[in-house]
Design a protein that fits this description.
This protein is α/β, with parallel strands linked by helices. It is built from nine helices and eleven strands. The longest helix has 16 residues.
């Protein structure tokens, strides 16, 4: 008799039997589904560098952000199933292309399977593994990754439970994200870079500033400053919000672009707190930098992405 695993990969604790008809909040069945695997030039400078980040986009999501720029794969769940062995080969193929790291995007709802994949392939990887999540990770899930992930790059989206409930269907987001970033830092320690300035280890927290939400963004920055040692992490304050992906959402503020005042207010707060990190120019807020997932489904990794505006580290 086979053992049934009831899914506990994320804080929702759906305990769905994904091997049968039961599916949790993420809507994904058993196995691993991916939507793209290719070198990616659009991350922060110490992640993308000059050769790109070996990015694997996973299908589905444990959040339901109304403004999601990857909604084709997160909400509509367009992707294909890969075996654990095939995923190992995809990672190794990306490494052979010369990328700086293996970048796992929206991986949380595959934590258990990815812990097995990484355990198998890690001895053959000589580049860092990046866990690029929405920040809604459970401590229990993260502990399965201890020693397997080199760089954690989570979002910290909201401090307000009202906003997180309305925009991402996760009223406990701030509590779970707080626990997650503390656990991530415990695992990887302070940031480390190689001679080319590429990040080899550590925690890089991202925050996307949303239109109409600057006060919550400022509160997020202040909160992070109280729970994390500023000299041991990096913070990325992102300006890439584009309203094209929220045209049908019920919140009017999300159907417009971010203003200079809103973004600069959050940057000022980050500077006042003493963060070291990255910021984006206004030119980053275009939909052109969202990959065309439907025409670039993964078989073997492909290159040829346009180059997005680089962020700049400030000290």
């Amino acid at each position: 008799m086979s053992c049934v695993r009831l899914c506990d990969d994320c804080p929702r604790g759906c305990h769905a039997d994904r091997s049968a008809e039961g599916r949790g909040f993420c809507g994904m069945p058993d196995g691993i589904f991916i939507s793209r695997a290719a070198p990616h030039a659009w991350e922060e400078p110490p992640i993308s560098g000059t050769r790109g980040s070996g990015t694997v986009f996973f299908t589905g999501c444990n959040l339901r952000c109304v403004f999601c720029q990857n909604r084709v794969i997160s909400h509509d769940r367009r992707g294909r199933r890969v075996s654990e062995d095939e995923l190992c080969e995809i990672f190794l193929g990306l490494q052979n292309e010369g990328v700086h790291n293996i970048n796992l995007v929206t991986p949380t709802h595959y934590t258990d399977a990815l812990s097995r994949v990484l355990s198998s392939v890690k001895p053959r990887l000589h580049i860092p593994v990046v866990w690029n999540s929405g920040g809604y990770d459970s401590v229990e899930g993260l502990r399965r990754l201890d020693g397997l992930v080199d760089i954690y790059m989570p979002d910290f989206k909201y401090l307000s439970s009202e906003l997180s409930a309305s925009y991402s269907a996760a009223p406990d987001y701030a509590e779970r994200a707080t626990e997650a970033v503390i656990e991530m830092l415990r695992q990887v320690g302070g940031v480390a870079f190689d001679g080319e300035g590429m990040m080899t280890r550590g925690l890089l927290v991202r925050h996307l500033v949303l239109p109409g939400c600057r006060k919550d963004s400022m509160a997020v920055i202040r909160h992070l400053a109280t729970i994390l040692p500023l000299d041991k992490i990096r913070l990325s304050v992102m300006r890439q919000y584009t309203p094209e992906f929220a045209s049908d959402c019920p919140y009017p503020n999300l159907r417009r672009r971010l203003t200079d005042f809103e973004y600069e207010s959050v940057l000022d707060t980050a500077d006042e707190c003493g963060f070291i990190g990255y910021r984006q120019g206004k030119e980053a807020a275009v939909s052109d930098y969202t990959p065309d997932f439907l025409s670039d489904m993964p078989g073997s990794p492909e290159s040829g992405d346009p180059v997005a505006p680089n962020s700049a580290e400030n000290s």
